[in-house]
Task: structure prediction
Amino acid sequence: MATPPPDSPLFDVTVRVGCSLAYELTGSAMLLLNLRPTPDRNHAIVFEAFTTGDNLPVEEFADSHGNRVTRVKLAPGRNLFRHDAIVRVSSQPDNHDLTDRTPHLPADLPPAVLRYTLPSRYADSDKLGNFAWEKFGPVEHGWPRVQAISQWLHDNIEYRYMSGRPDLSAWDILQRGHGVCRDFAHLAIALNRCFNLPTRYVTGHLPDIGFPDPENHMDFHAYAEVYLGGEWHTTDARFHVPRIGRIKVSCGQDAVDGAFSTIYGGATLTYFEVWAYQVARGTVGVGDPVDFSKRLDNSWVVRTDPV
Result:
């Protein structure tokens, strides 16, 4: 599906998203940054600004998954990066406009989708086949099975903020019994792939529209998408409820493809801030100070822009 324009009536909520990062050079280093929202039918970028240090030379390219990647060579000392965007989204929840949830036979899948049925570094479905068939084999194939997997993970894997580790795969998390959003995503991906359901890893921003967060955590969020009926359907075992206002930044086979930064060489991340919150249309611009007094979300009430 094509991305509607920002002034489309489909988009009736305005969100500000972005991040601020600092890296301290300890040797020579290069970064791959994956911070900018990708074009998507569920959001439209109104304004966007991306600053890359003190006029550092950059190269922008699209990777094999279509992500907007920036390659930058760091300068000596402290290197600052900031992304800020005003984005319009729908007030309707995940998958509200997707009615065809028919699973495809592998022989009928588009060639570009086949790789999302295979095991990968963090979604090691080859280790989970017996468990998957024991738990979810009796469930109807397709969306009912996707939902059953999400429900089981939500009920049986404990979410522990800041417990993530870069060396843990889906199998490891199943044994450990707790993790962060990326771990929920990897398990959902691996288990769905056990049934030849193409499933990909997604990172992005998730404001608290119609779903308040009492602890007020703001961070990048990871979840999964399953290919059914010719479209990608969101599944998020971390919450297991349809959410409003997802803004996709990147996708891929697992977190290797969705990392917000990949460091080559000697550099350390010394500052990290992420924001994603609803604002009134026309009241905030990119580059303005992050001001949570203008925040409209973090409430059960969904407030839409005036017509």
